[in-house]
Every structure is written in C-alpha cells, then in structure tokens.
C-alpha cells in the first residue's frame, strides 16, 4: 500500500505532519478527515514538497552516513530475528527520529507492499542508497541470505565511517594550528607592525631590508588582501576545470599514487574500500566479474579504477584474480598474496576481509605518523614567522639605540 506524507490542521489550528498509508491521495485525505484533521498537503512519500516549503526542506534531503549505517544495522537485526521485510520497515519508520528518514522508510515499505523487491524499492532512491548498496541487497535476495548480507553491509558501512572519521580527526589538529597561525600572522602584519614601524617614518634612519619587506607586506595585507582571495578563487576554478577533463584528471591521479606521503594514504584508503566491497560481494554469491566491476566503482582514484577495468578484462579471458590484480602493479603485494592464498584454499572472502583489516590498520598508522610529523613542523613554522616579524620590528630599535650611544 503506498505511503503518503501529509501536513494537516487539527481543530485548534495546530499543524501536524506525518506519514499515512492509503490506496490513493484521495483515500489518505479521507482518513485524515475521519481523524478530525483538515489536510493541507498530501503527496507520495519520498517526493520533495512543492511550494513555499521547498527551500526550507531542500537542505538535509539525504540520508547521512550515520543514518545509513544505523538504518542498515537495525534492518539487518530485525531480519535476522525473523521479521518480514515490510514489518521490519514499519518498525524502522515508527522509531525514525528525522521526518525525512521516516518518510523515506515509509515510501520503501509502500513499494515493497506493492510487489517490489527490496532492491527494486531502494533503486527509486539512488541518492540515499548507492549502486553498490542496491547490488548487495539484490544479491542477498537472490541467494536467500538477505539478513546475513545486510549484517555484513552494516559492518562494512560502520567500518568505513569509522576509518574516515579517524582520518578526519587526525588532520583536524594540524588544520586548527594552521588557521591559528594564519590569524596571528595576519593580526601582527595588519595592526602591530604598522603601529611600531610608524615611529621610524619621520626619521632619516635607513631601515633594514627585512623591515622594509615587512612594511610592504603589511601594506598589502591591510589594503590589497582582496587580491589574494581573487587569485585563489581563479586558481581553484582553473584547477577544477582542468581536472574535470579525463586526460588531466587521469594524469593527476596517477601522480597522486606516487606522491610523497600522500601517495601511500590514497593507495591504502582505496585498497581498503576495494577489498572490503569485494569481500562482501563474493560472500553474497555475486559473480566475480560483476563483483570486480562494483568494487572498482567504489574507488575514487581514476587511475586505480582504470587498472581494475584492465584486471576485469584479464579475468574474463581466464586469468586468476590474484594474477590479474598483480599485473596492474597498483594494489599492495600483501593483498595479491592473500587473494592467491584464498584461491588455493577456496576461501577468497576470508582473505579479502583479512587484507582489508590489515590495510586499514596500516592506513591508520600512517595517518597518525603523518599528523604527528606535521604538528611540530607547523608549530616551528608559526614560530619562525613570528620570529621574522619580531626581528623586523626590533632591528630598527636596536640600530637607533646604537646611534644614540
């Protein structure tokens, strides 16, 4: 039975919103009137509200990563417990905290009750459930292991979010130090330096070169700072336009894989996503070629994605997965060796899980090492900039004292 989102007024004139199931919008309005409500807006759940509410609801019209992980975990738990899909979705809709989540789940339930499979219902909401998500659900439905697949999918989403959060938190402190240093230097150049150096403006004393440079820089910061913003905007726009083209983007991503420090992080992060996705797909019984294609689509590095496409061609021609991935020379040797071991023992899924967990730990270690290296370097750089400003201010004073003596 379809679900409809409504906004209605009660007898006191208070607005009420929610989701109601009915055969049609007319039937939904009839149900609302029998409840003593005057319907104002009634339309299928999952569609954007038109009119003056559009701008207000345009923000947040998508599942967050936390909500997607929580929804998947709860749905997996309910299905493993034996609840049918429609009843599990009803439970999720009843306990959803955000209106959009409630309306989304209600819309999916309505489509399932209308005869759609769960994967087919999710396909109508591609912004909230990406293709890899829908492919896993479809594989679980075809193999009859939907509860198990949803559990593994929930584990994958939670681990991916946790890894991303650790990386973001690791770089948060260096980013804060950089912003504080920029603010302090800008304050010194725009306020402190002009106040102190203006004392020597009326004298005939020849100022040191470092002081003259600092005065010119101070004038630029106070008067022409907007030029810097324009230059940054233009450069950013040009870089974005250039990287939007296939050739330059591919060349940049290839260089990124070999870049100092950042290259290993990019390669490790994509390897974790690839191995984890491939493990879930093979465990769900997805054919290896389809699994490789779906796992390759999760990579955000174009060069690695192109190498996976080459590996798919080799596997289609009869080459083993481990040999095909080894031929790309992109993925870590540990991943290739573990896959080869899994092929020999007939348990590729376990080896892929082991490779993903090991690479995730290595990625976290490298991230922590890089941030622990950046923190003292940033502090030293900030101290060096402040030292230069202090010298530019103090040198004329020291020279003046020497002349007086």
TrEMBL record:
Recorded topology in the membrane: Multi-pass membrane protein
GO term, biological process aspect, one? protein secretion by the type II secretion system
Location of this chain's protein in the cell: Cell inner membrane
Domain of life from the UniProt record: Bacteria
Its transmembrane ranges are 167-193, 225-244, 373-398
Task: Supply the alphabetized keyword list.
Answer: Cell inner membrane, Cell membrane, Membrane, Transmembrane, Transmembrane helix
Record GO cellular component, one term: type II protein secretion system complex
Q: Start and end of every Type II secretion system protein GspF domain? A: 72-194, 274-396
Question: What coarse category fits the chief subcellular location reported for this protein?
Answer: membrane
A Pfam family assignment:
T2SSF
Cited InterPro entries: GspF/PilC, T2SS_GspF, T2SS_GspF_dom, T2SS_GspF_sf
- Check the UniProt entry and state the signal peptide residues, or none: none
Question: Is Cell inner membrane a UniProt keyword of this protein?
Answer: yes
Please state which protein family the record places this protein in.
Answer: Belongs to the GSP F family.
Alphabetical list of NCBIfam families matching this protein: GspF
How is this protein named in the record? Answer: Type II secretion system protein GspF
Species assigned in the record: Pararobbsia silviterrae
